[in-house]
Design a protein that fits this description.
The protein is built from 18 helices and 34 strands. It is of the alpha+beta class. The protein folds into 6 domains: 3-71, no CATH class; 75-135, no CATH class; 161-334, P-loop containing nucleotide triphosphate hydrolases (Rossmann fold); 336-430, Translation factors (Elongation Factor Tu (Ef-tu), domain 3); 453-551, Rossmann fold (3-Layer(aba) Sandwich), CATH 3.40.50; 555-651, Elongation Factor Tu (Ef-tu), domain 3 (Beta Barrel). Helix 11 links the parallel strand 9 and strand 10. The relative contact order is 0.07. Bound molecules: guanosine-5'-diphosphate.
Length: 655
Amino acid sequence: MNITELARRLRVSPQELRDTLPKIGFDIGQKAIKIDQYLAQRIIREWPRLTRDLKNREERERQQEEAVATARAERRVVKIGPVITVKDLANVFGLPVNRILTELMQNGIFASLNEKIDFDTATIIGSELGIGVVASEEEAMDNDINELKEAENISGSNNLIVRPPIVVVMGHVDHGKTQLLDAIRHTDVVATEAGGITQHIGAYQISRKDKEVTFVDTPGHEAFTAMRKRGAKVADLAILVIAADDGIKPQTIEAYRIIKEAKIPFVVAINKIDKPEANVDRVKQELANELGLVPEEWGGKAIICSVSARYGQGIDELLDTILLLADLNAEARLADPLAKAVGTIIESHIDKGEGPVATVLVHNGTLKIGDNLMCNQQYYGKVRALKDYRGQLIQEAGPSTPVKVIGLRATPEIGDIVRVESVEHRNKTKIIAKQENQAIITKVQDDNSFKGTPINLVIKTDVYGSGEAIEESLLKLNNEEVAVRIIYRGLGNITEGDVVRAAANQAKVIGFNVGVNAQVEDLARDKGVLIERYQIIYDLIDKVRQDMQALMKPEIKRINLGQVKVLAIFKQEGMTQIVGGKVIEGTIRADSLLEVVRGGEVIGQGKLVHLQAGRQEVKEVVTDQECGLQIESLEVLKVGDILRIYREDEVFKKM
Ligand code: GDP
């Protein structure tokens, strides 16, 4: 049925229909022109109920937004303890409980009314709702003690276990990597049924014969190589997939090279054996000839399984082979679940609701909610929530477990190694970061030789890396006249705090890939703080460069126009003198500057005000022409003096 026809039947405009459908669970895409008859019938049937629900929902949301707006307008600050129940928090905030629950959910926390949340979470929720949260002093101390205890608990212990093997699947494009990963996932009934919809977090786990196996389902060859280059240990075993109807292809060779370099055991899975064109023997021949991988049955060492990922054929045997290989290499996978967690980032992005999220593949130790994560010697935040590959909230993730971490301040890069640090260490790095910040600020302030103009900036970015890059590029623009001074650099949306900070320092707020809400914009307007937002680093740098340029004093450049010999003196009255002369060089113009030269030496300065040729006032006179000149000069001119006429231009220095 045509969309227009469906819209007509539902008595709405086609655009309204397109906009509403996704909101009520039918995502047909903005460009769809036709939809199938069955779907159209379902939409017609369910339209009244679903749109009514939608309306109610939107009304509820509107009311909640209103309450939030009121809270924001009041700019309240509330005091809370180290933990607080959701219900109490709603009370303290003066907002409907639902609103708190939604906000928590958007931060990946699915709490019930009476569930307790910690101070940090409450602060984050508060900041998103425009409410300041502070801890009273004794409560803050409790917080620290709690955190210290927690940190102490993590250390020590030496009970080693063999962690589950981590397996990667590699091979040429279209040879069936994705399908195989799906087929393997479906062998685990528990894994696929428990959570309903499976989440793609970059890896999943299955349980087979009471043993767990982790499969990394993201990395193509590039990602895998990138991770290894950074020293990250990603996988313990590999599956090299080759389509039985296609044989060895360039990426098969590349994948084999990577596996060989990583020195990890592997199984060759010859896939698509269900296809009529499949020729397993030919692939085996190619393996032996092209890669030197001689199948076991031919007396070689290559372990080969024939499978059909599409029909699930041979998957059990493949998995058993993997378990066997894993058993043979068990000693390479010893881990201490009681240690502080160390893992590799295998996926990371900014999620609309959850903010920066990342999947960590834990290699050693156990990652827990509340852990402080360090990555590249930077503090990346506290683990606020952990989700497994089924999208379920979990409390902790032990060795070989892939887990989505919520609560990060920025997105780490794939291949980055994350560690859990104690509170003590975190505080130390916080202090270091603070000192570094101050160093930037005082670098300019304390530099007595800097007499120029500072450009003060508060910079907010979506990720840590871009903040660093922007700062580095901006500081490079500094010169002896104008220098960028970064008052503060932080992550996330532009907040009222940023505006206040900027106002106190006559600074401008610059946002890169971050948002700003209307309240903050209003405050900025009140305080006369400029907010600029960019999506392209180049544009940002260029604008700052222009600002700096505008503040730089222009250079004065002298342009010699010509010389005049004084032939007669007509009138001398104070500074004003009218003389006759001849241009001996160049083209001179009225409204210029001049030097008086007598006996080869400059003896005075002056201005050429008017020029006359014959009786006419003229703008310019050329070489060999005689003229009358009205001059302003303190020097009393004499016949025979040479007047050097010149102009001074202001030239803006190029940065
Ligand atoms: P990838 O690029 O290696 O991830 O390959 P995909 O898993 O996306 O598979 C590529 C195509 O091959 C898809 O159309 C799959 O449906 C198909 N395919 C994968 N495995 C099999 C199989 O065992 N049998 C058949 N007949 N087709 C398969």
